[in-house]
Amino acid sequence: MSINGTTPHRSRKVGGRRPVVDDDKRAAIFDRHRRGESIRTIAAGVKVSVGVVHKTLTAARSETKPAAIVAAAEGNPR
Would the pTM of this model clear 0.90, i.e. be above it? Predict the structure, then answer.
């Protein structure tokens, strides 16, 4: 609550820009990356910017932890 008793604007989650990458484009980006294509080639083929491809791949990497990190966190060094 703010001083005058109303909720501040930051607490509302309304509006914003829609994501450019849908599930089909995301799958195409991952598939092309697995085949070894460069980020520029992927961006041109999927018709998104290089930044969008990079952001999509980086977000996917941060969601999945490598086995070595998981093992170290559990106290089982490899």
Answer: no
CB 43 within 8 A of CB 52: yes
For residue 33, what are its two tokens? Answer: 């990356």
Cβ-in-10-Å burial (0-12, 13-18, 19+) of 29 comes to buried
Residue 56 burial (C-beta neighbours within 10 Å; 0-12, 13-18, 19+): buried
| Nearest alpha-carbon partner for 56 in 44, 39, 69 | 39
Write the pLDDT tens digit of every residue in 28-44.
999 999 999 999 999 99
Q: Which two tokens stand for residue 78?
A: 């490899």
